[in-house]
Amino acid sequence: MTYDEGYIKYESVWAPGPPPAAAVAEELDRWRRELFALGLIGYDDEHEVGYGNISVHAGQPGQFFISGTQTGHLEVTDRSHYTLVTSCDIETNRVHCCGPVEASSEAMTHAAIYRVNLGIRAVVHVHSDELWNSARDVLPTTDPAVAYGTPAMAGEFRRLYIHGDLANVGIAVMAGHPGGLISIGGTLEQAATRILNLARRPTPARD
Ligand SMILES: [Zn+2]
Hints:
This protein has about 210 residues and is α+β, with helices and mostly antiparallel strands. The protein has a single domain, classed as 3-Layer(aba) Sandwich (L-fuculose-1-phosphate Aldolase). Helix content is about 30%, strand content about 25%. It has 6 helices and 10 strands; from the N terminus they run βαββββββαβαααββα. It has an 8-stranded mixed β-sheet with strand order 1-7-6-5-4-8-10-9, sandwiched between helices. It has a two-stranded antiparallel sheet with strand order 2-3. Helix 1 (about 20-35) runs parallel beside helix 6 (about 190-200) and helix 2 packs parallel to helix 4 (about 150-160). The protein is globular and about 40 Å long. It starts with 10 loop residues before the first strand and ends in a 7-residue tail after the last helix. Residues about 1-10 have low confidence and may be disordered. The structure holds zinc ion. The site of zinc ion has 8 residues, from strand 8.
């Protein structure tokens, strides 16, 4: 499996600041625990890198709370592990965040998805070779030539949402990001449940 999480490809501007409200962190942790239990978010011992991240809209357009970098190994998280992304410039690959921890290096991907539609209020990004292999080109799938966290990826999500099934299915396979899938929802529960249900169902045989 190839991971990109250990490498921050974009410029991150982090201002230390207060953590999110306890209720926000508790809801993020509640769903993250289930994702962690299934190995969809976690830490890869072989590659020594964390993977997967979760975010929820923060009220203001373009702002969201996201799990911090270097938190993949944690089974349980609290307020100190989440940060507010205050703005993102997809074209220059720059993320501004404010909180107790620096944002996940995949915050740009989350930002790109929130921009697709105001109804998207939560984003879950997981890694699973099994799901990636079984769902690729079955569920909405991004162009394999497009890497994550790029302006082109933002366009890919928009294409799948407007012209594909992403709005209905709520899950996309990132073909250019091995093992990577994202799920979206109007709530954190909806986004998390979509990918949890996919992971829990028996894997169909692939011809
Ligand atoms: Zn990833």
